[in-house]
Amino acid sequence: xLAMPVTTQxxxxxxxxxxxxxxxxxxxxxxTQFEGVEFKQLTLPFIDSPTKAQDAVDTINQAxxxxxxxxxxxxxxxDAEVRSLISTSEGMMFDFFDTFINPLEAELGVRSSHAVGxxxxxxxxxxxxxxxxxxxxxxxxxxxxxxxNFPHADIILIGVSRCGKTPTCLYLALQVGTLAAxxxxxxxxxxxxxxxxxxxxxxxxxxxxxxxxxxxxxxxTERRPNSRYATIEQCRREVAAVEELYRRExxxxxxxxxxxxxEIATTIMHMTNLKRRMQR
Length: 280
Known about the structure:
- By secondary structure, the chain is of the alpha/beta class.
- It has 2 domains: 9-120, 3-Layer(aba) Sandwich (Rossmann fold); 125-272, Rossmann fold (3-Layer(aba) Sandwich), CATH 3.40.50.
- It contains 9 helices and 8 strands.
- The strands form 2 sheets. A 4-stranded parallel β-sheet has the order 2-1-3-4, with helices on both faces.
- Helix 2 packs parallel to helix 3 (80-86), helix 5 (125-140) runs antiparallel to helix 6 and helix 7 (213-223) crosses helix 8.
- The longest helix has 18 residues, at 50-67.
- The mean pLDDT is 91.
């Protein structure tokens, strides 16, 4: 098969009758496999009526006229009439529900509900409360604000400033209901050979994050430009010291330099056998 000529830019639409998160996640995963193409990505959420569907068709067709090439459409639309209208547009449509629902119905012998918004609904009140409580826990126990709740934490992330502790804790809270706290290992902490005293009773729940010093310098420079905190020398010194601490104390750790928050969280769960508090 002949390779298609590379187009420098293509417009991509993620279409959904709800938030568009699922369409974005699935579509983006596919697009990452195509290097050399610049994708202009737009999300059209809450397309839940024929009127909104026609507005979306108009937007898609205008993009076709502007670009001179067909937009790519990634859809998780459920309503048949809405999907039919979108299919009349000048875009190339990839319908995730049509691709997977029909074979699943055939295999299970059960017709799907075709209920709009089911994948991102609240679910049960109990699971929703687990998520909210976990998010509140992560926020209340962020960056060493307090350590009084550490005995209740499922996991405590530690590491130097700006290595990814906070976003990872929030992701774990939102996605699986984990009670995740984090504690910054400061320059003062690294002057001593032992773990900070406040962490010692919770050694079994500790997990370390580290990062390449050059990447750390870039992040810190955005936060505090022209500061000692952001110099490459300071970054190298802190990273080397904290990694030595992890090895000496036998604390598992992960390099976050080139890893997404999703992968960091999943790897932590795998390495620690951390269980979900909230089921999908």
